Amino acid sequence: MVRAVQKAIDDDEHLAVQAGTGTGKSLAYLVPSIRHAMDSDSPVVISTATIALQRQLVDRDLPRLSAALGKELPHEPTFAILKGRRNYLCRYKATAGWPEEDEQHQLFDPREVSATGRMVQRIQEWAEETETGDRDELVPGVSEQAWRQFSVSAQECLGATRCPSGAECFAEMARARAGEVDVVVTNHALLAIDAMGDLPVLPEHDVVVVDEAHELVDRVTSVVTGELSDTSVMLAVRRVGRLIDQPVADQLMEAGEDLKALLAAAPPGRIDDMPQVLGLTLQLIRDTAWRCITAMGPRNADKDDPDKAGQRKAAFTALDEVHDTAVRMLDAYGHASESDRAEVVWLDSGTDRRPPSLRVAPLTVAGMLRDKLFGERTVVLTSATLALGGTFDALAAQWGLADGKWQGIDVGSPFDHPRAGILYVAKHLPQPGRDGLPQQYLDEITELIEAAGGRTLGLFSSMRAAKAATEALRDRLDVPLLCQGDDSTMLLVKQFAEDEPTCLFGTLSLWQGVDVPGPSLRLVIIDRVPFPRPDDPLTSARQRHVAARGGNGFMAVAANHAALLLAQGAGRLLRSQDDKGVIAVLDPRLATARYSGFLLNSLPPFWRTTDPAIPRAALKRLATEAP
């Protein structure tokens, strides 16, 4: 992998590398990255999807590597972590007046207000002593509601030269540090913002390594998804406040009230054809927001008065977001055919704490990535799961690399999968239905866990299924059974790892986030092939869009999604050289459906069986082995 990454950098050619758990892939891309940074006097950017990997790189891998290589290089390699501006405390906002951030519904819950108040006090005390202003230093963490009182987005920031606190700005200091080092560690969201935005966020660079690259499309999609609700409209109204004539602001407030009433009555889900009343409401929001923007006058007015400049910047930011999102939603319609449509709009029903909202997202981000990320630099993409169905083609198409200059390699795994693990597909069970877990599934789970003596990670397709299985089996099993949601996921995983007989059931974050080597994990149970929900607005729209262009929408979207998650889930089993165990997939479709070959080819080469006696016997042997 080191040689392949070095060659990609030398040849200015994009590279996708599948590297299994235990390969040492971070060292394999860091060594040639550091060499390039030294030779070119330009930093290399490493982008990850999770905070855990960022911390591993900055706290463990890079310090060790720098110490080891320092004697062989002109200087010891340097590195820094860079996050989005929202992650750093804004000194000016912490000390100056700022537009009201509280959302109205929280003002009426005394418990919410008092809890937020205590967090605000903690932040104020921490602000006096922190040297970095990095939110992640706050342990325990604080709510988004409290943190917003002390942070600004890039759009709201006055800029270092105009802000009274610019000379000691934490975000600017972090960016300055990043500009002086050899390796900058960041996340996919900031990488996307830097690539897609008009103003650079990251220091100038010509090589990017995208680790956890299987997450890239989802993270970029999240960054470019627009949201519109009565809350966002009312925030703009509050921020514009006394900066314009009241009747103009009142027009936007009335449009927001119309939107609130409309969203409260409309059914959630994808909106294929714009209802007339929704179109008129969006036009009203677009036009009234534009009147407010026009009434604000020049954007650089009051630039010599930081307080007023801050209020104006915050108002422009909120108004721009409302106006531009309404424009995007209106532009999503009116195309002659489905294949010409670029974006999808849907109604999210919200929660008890979050109102209903309209959302708009691109049907593909391939073009954006091709033009903005891959077009201007050399990119190395790596993960344990990139070759879906045995090839890189599926993800390459999603990245916009299908027709470009790139190579894909699988560097293998240090694990002997056929000797260390069994992939058991319960072919005899009925297909999973929509009415919860069938009794036969619960019986199968019980027998497998009893054979393993606990030591089981149960990965379920929904939280409802995980909780139902937990409630049904707690009385049937004589081993401890934990369920995601009983406590923080981090503490549950810790408890699971430290007590061998314990079992842990959960959903999506456990499919990708659990690293438990050793005898505490001998069995991974997957209840069903993890296809996206049929009513998921974005994936269903993407599926239909591919079909409209002559492709196989099911395979390109739903099957790829399922293959990626299955591979991630199966990857929980073997985390060290001594690990052994069983992956048990209860869904018979993995053995019988026409797409089963594609899914199986996306998984590590475990020894496969559909005979239920074989995994039970193997688990019993493992349970009686001396530790």
Automatic annotation (TrEMBL):
Keywords: ATP-binding, Helicase, Hydrolase, Nucleotide-binding. SMART domains: HELICc2. It holds the Pfam family Helicase_C_2. GO terms for molecular function: helicase activity. Residues 1-256 form the Helicase ATP-binding domain. It comes from the Bacteria. Belongs to the helicase family. DinG subfamily. This is ATP-dependent DNA helicase. The lineage of its organism: Bacteria, Bacillati, Actinomycetota, Actinomycetes, Streptosporangiales.
